[in-house]
Amino acid sequence: MLARREIASLRAEKTIVLALLIQLFVAAFSSFLVVGLVSLYDPGSVEGYTVDVGIVGDESSVADLRAAVEETRGLDTRTYDDAAPAREAFDRNELDAVVRAEQTGGRTTVTALVPDSDVRTTVVVVQLRDALRAYERAERAERSEHLSAEPLALPPEGRSSPYYGFTYTVLLPLLLFLPVFIGGSIVVDSVTEERERGTLELLRAAPLSAADIVDGKTLAAAGLAPVQAALWVGLLELNGTSVANLPLVLVLVAALSTVVVTLGAALALVAAERRVAQLSYSLGTLVLFGGTTLHEDGPVGLAARLALGSVGPEATLVVAGYAVAAVAGYAVLRRAVCRVDLG
Amino acid sequence: MSGRDRLARTLRIARWEVSRSADTLDRTTVVVFLVALLAAGTVVATGAAGGGVAPDRDIYRIGVAPDSAYRAPVEDTAPLRLVAADPGLVASSRAEVVVADGEVVVADSAKGRAALAAFRSAVREHNLALMSAEANRSAAFPVVVDLRYVSRDTGALAGTGAGSGTTTGSGGTDGSGGTDESGGAAGDDGDDGGAFAVPDLGAGTADLFGGGTSGGSPAEISPPFPFASLVLAFAFLVPMNFVVQAYGSTMLEERIGRRGELLLVSPATPGEIVAGKTLPYLGAMVGLVVAVAALVGGGALSVAAVLPIALTFLGATFATAMFARSFKELTFVTVSVSVFLTAYAFVPAIFTNVTPVALISPLTVVVRDLQGGSVSVAEYLFSTGPAYLVGASLFVLGVGVYREEDLFTQRPVPLKLLDALAARIAGRRSAATLAVLSIPFVLLAELLALALLFALPREAALPVLFVVVAGIEEVAKSLHVYAGLHEGPLGDDRTTRGALVLGGLAGLGFFVGEKLFVVIQAVGLTAVPLGEATAATAGVLPVGALLVAPLALHVVTASVSALGAVRGPRGYAAGLAAAVTLHAGYNLAVVTSLG
Question: Are A127 and B208 in contact (CB under 8 A)?
């Protein structure tokens, strides 16, 4: 009953709408960033964009370098006899980079000029790096008899979407655990507000036990997170990102949500004022998530692996462990609340 | 009432606020806090020792035989997990890539291809380590790369003798006087590497470039990180969140249980009370900004650039605390504000090649400060002006409702906002002045819209952007008119004539504000071509072109929505919709005819 009241008050203030909007914004913003970043670091993923490279230098190096550059996706070459016209073309924005190759003492020295301007610099440098790596491999192969260990042959190039890993290791955990964090924050606010307004006493006068009150406050908040998580997963599916092991993922979210909400409620009951409660709650959750990321079965990594389907049957046990820990923590809070006086 | 009295009262309230905050730190709180700090310390310590955070640990499974040379790179790479070299594992989707008998078997899925790409880069890393151990350097690294970042606009052409000998030494000066925005990693000197035809390439160039490598193997080239301002945005804004949380709490607590009444009946005016209560938090913000600036290596200029953001943050929180009905509402609005501000501070940096737009973000000034560049007074005002204005207007709005009848009543946030706007309306003239003041808010909102819509495909994004921009501008022109008509002193103007006058004034005010912005931009900043679509949609048309048309547009659309506003909420919605349609159509027509 109290849980229903909590949800109704959330709805009345339209805060839930705002919460969803914030999450949507954060997700859109971060994917916007990543689409931008990734297309910089892997310009091949952006259609129809080429980097024009001017090449100068001595004849044999130029021929080899040119072959390597042309092999790389998204690069066009032009050869110049002399440095001056190449530099002029560079200054006229006709070339994105100028590369000069010369033999010096058994090595090839490559001097590369790139524009010091903006994000485009990054694109140019990334493309150039790929070409120069290919060139280095070819040159190294020619000198292989001088090497004590042969470099490993590279596996074939995979034409993979550069967003793939990010979607599962960053975007999905963000969408799954942001509602969890917000849920805990709601509980902190809700409990401290009842305390500050003195309405917790009123609730006590109603035929409700202390445990009932805690149940109502926490269940409403803890239940929202899995529902939202399911919503986000649905959206991702529509977007073509499939999530494996969905039931386990949702159980994981529910368990964490319970842990965080328990923490929030406990802090709100202990701390004297909302300021202190919110501050220690934010710090506490940051520590919780930051700290567990270091661990192999931390929730962020575990969620990513579950969603990718890169787990064996043992993952079920780990998720069950989380669920047990969450229920146990909540039980401790309930017992403690029954002992101490509220208000 | 002398100025000294006011100051004394303000300071006394500030002192109370500080001592009251100290009082809330009772013993339990201190214990809770210490435990949290201790836990944080432990985590940081173990994190530093444990090799860092890897959320992508073991996400791909690679099968390699125990005697294969590929085993080492797989074992050394966090995202890759070693499994048995059985091609059957790929078929039963228990592995993504398997190397068996010299063949590489890859699962035919997006995941398989991603795993292959990760495997390939792991092998590349392994080769680099292998070659680094070779005795024969010239065979291991047959190619030496010297990467130079050159400003194009310096005109330093490739004279063969130019800069001979010394060019590999310390960094050249930033010849363009700060017009190039390299966006490189913090500490990047914005180098102008000098002439191209340098005969000798030795050591000593490596420290020249923050982002790139020179004199090394191609494998060691690291492209400059283009989003230094993102890192800065987080460094400055995340700690600010904590201050703002506390500030919002204390302001809202005044409104709970009529606690603020005692101060209200004292001789102190609302302005003094708010100033006094804000002062300690403003001080905390300044301390924070100075500390972070010192950490990232910025000077006074960085502090001066970030402070307006802090002011805006405090102002938004104050206004929210005045409007919110509960802590929950406060939390949500504060979180949204912090997300939006982060985006606002960061997004313009993406348009670094469109310098005037990039300068809107105060962080651009910080980046320049870190790079040792200079910023003119006009440029400083341009980039921080909107933030100062927004912060100040939010405080003004909030103080307007810091009175008994508003402080202790609970109304939905939108109605409170209308109240606050109405409190600032003194007469018909206010319709124009408030429209001028709305410009920084409009700018902020439009930038955010741009950031959000960026992810959409271009064909879809542009029309949507036009509609959104039109919507933002129309709301900015009409909301205060509506507030004045229904909540404020303009009730007599609820006639067609009155609406036309108010709408005309609002449109004129908005037009003046917009052009003021353009003039500041044209005068203060060296002429740099604007990004056409961005600027046109931000309402910034080239100076001298089409001065009359925008004025007519703003007046007409503002009148349309004002006419609707006269007829109550429904009429306002209808009028607004008509105005937005008109405006969006105009934007579309202008952009298609120009480009």
Answer: no
